[in-house]
Amino acid sequence: MLVRHCRQVLIAKECLNQGRDAREIGNAAQIPQFILEQFLRQARTADSDSIQSVFLRLAEIDKKMKSSSVDGRMLLESIICAFV
After folding, report:
1. In this structure, are residues 65 and 9 in contact, taking their beta carbons and an 8 Å threshold?
2. Three-state SS for 17?
3. Measuring CA to CA, which residue among 84, 29, 83 is closest to residue 54?
4. pLDDT digit string, tens, across residues 67-80
5. Which of 69, 12, 21, 74 is nearest to 43 (CA)?
6. What is the full DSSP assignment across 23-63?
7. Cα–Cα distance for residue pair 37/44, rounded to 1 Å
8. d(Cα 61, Cα 83) in Å, to the nearest integer?
9. Which tens digit of pLDDT belongs to each residue from 17-68?
């Protein structure tokens, strides 16, 4: 879910930079209409570099969880602690 949300925010940020309207952004990022305005407020204030960094770290964690015997819970907790 975190990866999906990061991806949606990055898509929305790109669409906002292109000047696309809310409906187009909702369709591109697959955001339901009933939460679109709240989501767009969040996307406008999000830092693209930070979101992209989190997205890449989550991808690394996903790869480690699938390719090794490392405890997935510990990996996820480490990224959550990094947010604080």
Report:
1. no
2. helix
3. 83
4. 888 887 888 888 77
5. 12
6. HHHHHHHT--GGGHHHHHHHHHHS-HHHHHHHHHHHHHHHH
7. 11
8. 15
9. 999 999 999 999 999 999 999 999 999 999 999 999 988 988 888 888 888 8
Residue identified by tokens 């964690």 is: 61
d(CA 54, CA 47): 11
Q: Are 24 and 11 in contact (CB under 8 A)?
A: no
Cα 48 to Cα 12: distance, rounded to the nearest angstrom: 10
> Collapsing DSSP states into helix, strand and coil, what is residue 10?
helix
Which residue's entry shows tokens 């490392």? 70
Polymer length of the chain: 84
Using the CB atoms, write b or e for 17-33: b if 16+ within 10 Å.
eeeeebeebbeebebee
